[in-house]
Design goal:
1030 residues, alpha/beta, 28 strands, 42% helix, elongated, transmembrane, ion channel, transport
C-alpha cells in the first residue's frame, strides 16, 4: 500500500471502520460494476485517495466517520489497525503558495523585472558587420553606460529569475501542455531562450547575427507579461479599457523593435535608432505618413502591411468589447467554471456581508491546514458594494465565486455545478419577521438539493440553518447532514452565560478562530492569546484502546498542552451514540471520537503520532521530558479525508428539553390558568426582591429562556430564583406557546430598559443578573437596516447598546445612594451613642430606616461602637466595581460591540471587535457568531452536540461552573490547576480574571485555555466541568 501512495502518506495506528453495505451509497449494479472495472485502471491522483477499511463484527455499531461516499474515492481492504494520514507533498505546498498572496507578489516582481528588461533593450549592444568579419560596437543612446553598469550581467541575472519562475509554473501546474502552449508560456520561452543564446554565443557569422537581431527584438515581448496582471482584475469597463490600451501600446512597442531590426543594415544611408522606428510606426498607424522615414527593404514593407492589417483587426474588436459593456451583463449572471481536480462548496440563502466575511475567515483559517475547496455563493440578490469588495480581496478572489439565483431553480443548480459540489450550506435570515416562512424556504432549498442529488446519483452533504424548532423532524426527513437551530442554541448559550458569568465568551471562543498575527500586532495587553484555542476532533487509534479517560486527558495535556473535553461514545447499552462531557472512569475505545481544545489541527496529528511514545515514557521524570514536536506536516483538507457524520440524530427535541409541565420536578406549583397566572404575575410587587434575575426585552425573546434559567439555577444552587420581566407591552396568552405553565416566581413589570428609572424600579442594581434583549418597538430600525445591506447597520443594536449604558448609570446611581445612606447611618449611630439609646431600639430603627443597607450590618452586634466599626469597614470595601451587575446583552452584529463601554485604547474595535472588553468579559453575545458553528460542522461534524452539552442542562452530565480558585493554588501555574482538577474528576477550560491592579484590566475577562505557565492570581476564578461543586 505504501508504494501506491508515495512519500506523501504516513502510516499511523488508527481505528478501522466497517465496510457494512448499509453505510455505502445506494448505487445500482451498473455503477458498481463500472466502478470495479475502472478502479484498477484509474490513476492515483491527489483527489483520488484510497480509504482503508478492515472487517469488524457485523453486529457492531459502525463508526461515525465510516465512509466518504463520493465517486472519487476507492475502498480497499488493508491490514487491521493501519491507515494512511495524508501529508502534502512539496508540489502541493508550492501549488498552495502560487495561488495565494505569494503567487501575486512573485507575479508583480516578474512584471517589474520585465519592464526593466525592456528599458535595458534600449541600451542594448548593436553589433554591426564591417569589412568582412571586422566588428565595431556602438551603443544605443548611451555609448558607455552599458559596459559601465554591466547591464548585460544584470540582464542575464534577471533572465535566470525568469527561467526559475517559468520552471516553477511548469512544476506546479496541473496541465503542463496547456501552460506551455498558452500565451504566457510562449512569451516566456521566446524571451528566455534567445537571451541565453546571445549571452553564450561567440559566433561572428552574418546570418547568425541577423537571427540574433530578431531574437533581441523578442525581448520587448516581456512587456506582454502585464497582460497577466491585468487579467487578475475583475471584469468591467475599467478592465476592458486597460486591455485595449495595453494591446495598442504593446503592438506599437514590439512593431518598433521589429522594424528597427529589419532596417538596421550597413548599406542603409541613414541608421535607424529605436526612437526613429517608434516614430515611423506611430506616424504610419495614425495614417499621417510624412515620408521622412520609409521602409527600404522587402521584408520591412511586408511587415508594415501585416502590421496595418493587424491593427485594423484588433482595434475594432476591442472597441466592440467596450461597446458591449453598455449592455447590462454582469459576472454574477454567469455560471461557475470550476477548475479541474478542485472541489467546491455552495453557500446559499441569506448572505449577509458581515456574517459571510466571518464564514470565509473561519473556512479558510490557517489553523486548519491547506483547505482544498472553493466557495460558490448563490445569493438571492446581486452582490452589494461591500460584498464585491470582500470577494475581490486577494485572499478570496481566486477561491470564491458569487452568482445570483436560487437553489429551487433547475438552471441555477446547474450553474453552480451542484452535481460536483461537496457540500451545500443554506443560511437563514434570523432577523426576518416571519420565522416560519424563512424556515420553509430553507427546507425547500434543501429538498431541491436532495432531489437533484438523487437524480444525478451523487450524495451532497447539506448543512441547514433553521430559526425555529417547529421543523426539526422535517430537516431529518429531507436528509440534512447537520441542522443548526439558531434560536435554540442562542437561548442555551445566553442562559448559561447568565447563570455562569463569562460563559458566553468562553463558548464562543471555542467555536471561532482568530488571526494571531493581526491580534498580536494590534493588541499586547493581558487578553492577548485568550482566544487562540478551539475544538478539534480526533479519532482514537488502537494506542488509546482501554485507557481511562482521566489518564488520556492527563497525558494529552502534559504532552501536548491540549484539553480533552468530551468523547463521542458508542456504548452498546445506549440507544443512540452521544457526546459525553468528561466521562471519567470510563475506558476509551478504538474508533471513539474525542474533542480536544487545541491551538491548531496540527496538534491532532501530533497526538496520534506521539501518544504511544508518551505512554512508553510515562515512568520518566516529567521535568526531563520535552513536549513532542515530531509532526510538522500541513494537513490538506480535501474530499477524501474529511470526518463524516454517521447519520442525523433522529431524536426529538422534547427528549433533550424536558416538558415544562413536570410540576414537582421543576417547581411548577401553580394550578391557575395561563390568563390568571399572567394577571397575578403582573400585580405582584418587586420592592422586597433581592438576588433575583431581571429579563428585559420583548416576550418572544424572553419566554424561551424562562425555564432554562430556572432549571440551570436549580442545578447550581438547589433553588429557583425570582424572575422579573421588564416588558414594553402587556403580556397576553398569545405571547406564550400552547399548554404553557407560567412559574409562580415570575413577575411582569411594564417599562423599558432604555429608562434608568424603570431599571431601578425592578431592582436591576441589586439583582443577581440582568439579561438584555432587543424590544419589538425598535423593529423599524431593524427593517430599515435589513432592507439594504450597504446601509448603516448600527441601528440594529441601538436598543441593546443604550440599555447597557442605562444599566451602568443605574448601578452608579445606586452606589451613590448607598454611600449616602451609609453616611447617614453613621451620623445616626453617633447621635444614638451620645444619648445612650438601647441597642435593640437602634437596630430596629436602622433596619427600618435604611432598607438598602444589609440588615446583617446591624444585627448580631454587642454594642453601638462595634456596629459603627462594622459599617465603616463595609463602606470602605464598597467600590463601584463591587456593584457591577453581571449581565448579558444580545447583539445582532459584531461590529456594534464598539459602542459598548468601556473602551480599550489598545484594541481597534473596527478591526478586532471580539477583543473589546465587553465581549471578553462575557457581557455581550453576538448572534452572528452562530454562523461559525455551521462552518465548524463541516470539519467537525459533532461540534453542535458538544456546544449544546456545554451550554445545556442535562441532569446526568457535568455542568459548566464558575468557581473560586482554591487558595492553595494561588501563585501556581494554570498547568498545575488543570492536572489537580483532573485528579478530582473535573475539567478546567479557562480562567475568569477579575479586575486586578497588576493585570490592569478594567473589566473581568475570559482567558480560554491559557498557556500552562500562566500564573494564577488571588482574584482569578476558574471555569470547570464537574458534576458537583469542588
Amino acid at each position: 500500500m505504501s508504494s501506491t501512495f508515495g512519500p506523501a502518506y504516513t502510516q499511523l495506528r488508527t481505528p478501522r471502520t466497517s465496510t457494512d453495505a448499509s453505510l455505502l451509497p445506494e448505487d445500482d449494479e451498473a455503477s458498481r460494476s463500472t466502478s470495479s472495472k475502472m478502479g484498477a485502471t484509474r490513476p492515483q491522483a491527489i483527489h483520488q485517495l484510497r480509504i482503508d477499511c478492515s472487517t469488524m463484527q457485523h453486529d457492531a455499531t459502525p463508526a461515525p466517520d465510516a465512509v466518504v461516499a463520493t465517486d472519487r474515492v476507492y475502498r480497499e481492504r488493508s491490514q487491521r489497525g493501519m491507515t494512511l494520514v495524508y501529508a502534502p507533498t512539496i508540489r502541493e505546498q508550492l501549488q498552495a503558495h502560487m495561488t495565494s498572496r505569494v503567487g501575486v507578489y512573485l507575479e508583480l516582481i516578474n512584471t517589474s523585472f520585465s519592464v526593466l528588461c525592456c528599458l535595458f533593450y534600449l541600451f542594448q549592444v548593436r553589433n554591426d558587420l564591417e569589412n568582412h568579419r571586422q566588428l565595431t560596437c556602438s551603443k544605443l543612446y548611451a555609448p558607455t553606460m552599458y559596459d559601465a553598469l554591466q547591464i548585460q550581467v544584470v540582464e542575464i541575472t534577471l533572465t535566470c529569475y525568469f527561467a526559475l519562475h517559468y520552471l516553477l509554473h511548469l512544476y506546479t501546474t496541473e496541465d503542463v501542455w496547456q501552460f506551455v502552449l498558452s500565451m504566457n508560456g510562449v512569451i516566456d520561452v521566446i524571451t528566455i531562450v534567445p537571451a541565453f543564446i546571445m549571452f553564450l554565443s561567440t559566433t561572428h557569422n552574418s546570418k547568425a547575427l541577423t537571427i540574433f537581431r530578431v531574437f533581441r527584438v523578442f525581448r520587448a515581448l516581456r512587456v506582454l507579461r502585464l497582460y497577466r496582471l491585468i487579467r487578475s482584475r475583475k471584469h468591467g469597463y475599467n478592465y476592458e479599457w486597460g486591455v485595449f490600451t495595453f494591446s495598442i501600446c504593446a503592438i506599437i512597442f514590439v512593431a518598433a523593435g521589429i522594424f528597427q531590426a529589419l532596417e538596421d543594415y550597413p548599406e542603409r544611408s541613414r541608421s535607424i535608432q529605436f526612437h526613429d522606428a517608434l516614430y515611423f510606426i506611430l506616424v504610419t498607424l495614425a495614417t499621417i505618413g510624412y515620408g521622412d522615414i520609409v521602409a527600404t527593404t522587402t521584408l520591412s514593407e511586408i511587415f508594415v502591411m501585416v502590421l496595418i492589417v493587424a491593427v485594423v483587426t484588433v482595434v475594432p474588436s476591442q472597441l466592440t468589447r467596450l461597446n458591449a459593456l453598455h449592455k447590462p451583463r454582469y459576472a454574477h449572471d454567469d455560471a461557475y467554471r470550476g477548475r479541474p481536480k478542485k472541489s467546491h462548496v455552495v453557500v446559499a440563502g441569506h448572505i449577509a456581508h458581515e456574517a459571510f466575511a466571518d464564514f470565509l475567515t473561519e473556512f479558510y483559517h490557517p489553523s486548519r491546514g491547506i483547505v482544498d475547496f472553493e466557495v460558490v455563493v448563490l445569493g438571492r440578490d446581486a452582490p452589494s458594494d461591500v460584498m464585491t469588495r470582500l470577494l475581490g480581496n486577494v485572499a478570496y478572489a481566486a477561491k470564491t465565486t458569487y452568482l445570483k439565483g436560487s437553489l429551487m431553480l433547475e438552471k441555477d443548480r446547474s450553474r453552480v455545478r451542484l452535481d460536483h459540489a461537496e457540500a451545500v450550506f443554506v443560511l437563514a435570515n434570523r432577523q426576518s419577521a416571519d420565522h416560519a416562512a424563512e424556515d420553509a424556504s430553507t427546507l425547500l432549498q434543501a429538498l431541491s438539493v436532495r432531489n437533484y442529488a438523487d437524480s444525478t446519483g451523487r450524495r451532497v452533504r447539506t448543512y441547514l440553518q433553521m430559526i425555529a424548532d417547529a421543523h426539526h423532524d422535517l430537516s431529518h426527513i429531507i436528509g440534512a447532514t447537520q441542522t443548526l437551530h439558531t434560536n435554540r442554541m442562542k437561548d442555551d448559550i445566553v442562559a448559561r452565560g447568565t447563570v455562569c458569568p463569562g460563559a458566553c465568551a468562553l463558548i464562543l471562543n471555542l467555536i471561532q478562530s482568530i488571526d494571531q498575527k493581526k491580534s498580536k500586532n494590534m493588541f499586547s495587553g493581558p487578553r492577548r492569546g485568550s482566544k487562540s484555542r478551539q475544538i478539534y476532533a480526533i479519532v482514537f487509534s488502537e494506542a488509546f484502546d482501554g485507557h481511562l479517560f482521566q489518564d488520556v486527558a492527563r497525558r494529552i495535556y502534559d504532552g501536548f498542552e491540549s484539553i480533552l473535553l468530551a468523547v463521542y461514545r458508542r456504548d452498546k447499552d445506549e440507544g443512540h451514540p452521544r457526546v459525553c462531557l468528561g466521562p471519567f472512569h470510563k475506558p476509551i475505545r478504538e474508533g471513539d471520537i474525542g474533542f480536544i481544545v487545541a491551538s491548531s489541527s496540527y496538534v491532532v496529528h501530533q497526538i496520534l503520532t506521539d501518544y504511544s511514545m508518551l505512554v512508553d515514557n510515562e515512568a520518566d521524570d516529567a521535568t526531563s521530558r520535552s513536549r513532542s514536536t515530531s509532526f510538522r506536516h500541513h494537513p490538506l483538507i480535501s474530499t477524501s479525508n474529511l470526518l463524516h457524520r454517521q447519520s442525523p440524530l433522529h431524536q426529538r427535541l422534547s427528549q433533550s428539553i424536558r416538558s415544562p409541565t413536570e410540576h414537582g420536578r421543576f417547581g411548577f406549583d401553580s394550578v391557575m390558568s395561563l390568563d390568571e397566572a399572567i394577571h397575578h404575575a403582573t400585580r405582584k410587587s418587586t420592592k422586597s426582591l433581592s438576588e433575583h434575575i431581571v429579563l428585559c426585552g420583548s416576550l418572544r425573546h424572553i419566554v424561551p429562556v424562562i425555564h432554562r434559567l430556572r432549571r440551570m439555577y436549580y442545578q447550581l444552587d438547589g433553588q429557583y430564583p425570582s424572575l422579573v420581566l421588564l416588558c414594553d407591552t402587556a403580556p397576553t396568552p398569545n405571547d406564550f406557546p400552547a399548554d404553557y405553565v407560567l412559574p409562580s416566581h415570575v413577575h411582569f413589570v411594564m417599562g423599558s430598559s432604555l429608562r434608568c428609572a424603570d431599571l431601578v424600579r425592578v431592582g436591576a442594581p441589586k439583582a443577581k443578573a440582568v439579561l438584555l434583549y432587543p424590544y419589538d418597538s425598535q423593529q423599524h430600525f431593524r427593517n430599515e437596516s435589513n432592507a439594504d445591506e450597504s446601509s448603516d447597520t448600527t441601528l440594529l443594536d441601538y436598543g441593546v447598546v443604550t440599555s447597557l449604558l442605562c444599566l451602568e448609570t443605574a448601578s452608579d446611581l445606586a452606589h451613590v445612594a448607598l454611600n449616602a445612606e451609609s453616611a447617614a447611618a453613621q451620623d445616626d449611630l453617633v447621635f444614638y451613642a451620645s444619648n445612650r439609646v438601647p441597642l435593640s431600639a437602634v437596630q430596629d430603627h436602622l433596619v427600618g430606616h435604611y432598607p438598602n443597607l444589609n440588615p446583617a450590618l446591624f444585627r448580631g452586634t454587642s454594642s453601638i461602637q462595634s456596629m459603627s466599626a462594622r459599617l465603616r469597614q463595609h463602606s470602605a470595601a464598597e467600590t463601584p466595581e463591587s456593584h457591577e451587575v453581571p449581565c448579558v446583552a444580545v447583539l445582532t452584529r459584531g461590529s456594534n460591540i464598539k459602542f459598548c463601554r468601556p473602551r480599550d485604547i489598545h484594541v481597534c474595535a473596527d478591526d478586532l471587535p471580539y477583543l473589546a472588553p465587553a465581549y471578553a468579559a462575557g457581557r455581550v453575545f453576538v448572534d452572528s457568531r452562530l454562523d461559525l458553528l455551521l462552518c465548524q460542522a463541516f470539519y467537525n461534524p459533532y461540534i453542535t452536540e458538544v456546544i449544546h452539552a456545554l451550554a445545556g442542562s442535562e441532569t446526568d452530565a457535568p455542568i459548566l461552573r464558575l468557581l473560586e480558585l482554591p487558595p492553595a493554588l494561588v501563585g501556581l501555574t494554570f498547568g498545575d490547576l488543570v492536572l489537580r482538577m483532573l485528579s478530582s474528576d473535573a475539567i478546567v477550560l479557562g480562567l475568569y480574571r477579575c479586575p486586578h491592579k497588576r493585570l490592569g484590566n478594567l473589566l473581568p475577562y475570559v482567558y480560554t485555555s491559557p498557556p500552562h505557565e500562566t500564573r494564577l492570581h488571588s482574584k482569578d476564578k476558574m471555569f470547570i466541568l464537574a458534576r458537583e461543586a469542588i
